[in-house]
Write a structure and sequence with these properties.
By secondary structure, the chain is mostly helical. Helices cover 56% and strands 0% of the residues. It is built from 4 helices and no strands. It starts with 9 loop residues before the first helix and ends in a 5-residue tail after the last helix. 0% of the residues are buried. The mean pLDDT is 76.
């Protein structure tokens, strides 16, 4: 039995904890490309909804 499951890297864990505590991402890629849209983005993409409907608005 083979699985493609991988544990997250320490960098990803550190970034997730930092984001949960401060509300700001420490990952430089997020500064360039933005954060993922989460479950709503995945479902919206599967349904073919426009990104404007599923992305979080910046204040």
């Amino acid at each position: 039995m083979k699985s493609d499951f991988e544990l997250p890297s320490m960098k990803n864990v550190s970034n997730s904890v930092s984001y949960a505590v401060t509300g700001k991402s420490t990952d430089p890629d997020c500064a360039v490309f933005g954060r993922g849209s989460g479950v709503t983005g995945i479902v919206g993409g599967a349904l073919g909804l426009p990104p404007e409907w599923t992305e979080k608005k910046r204040n």
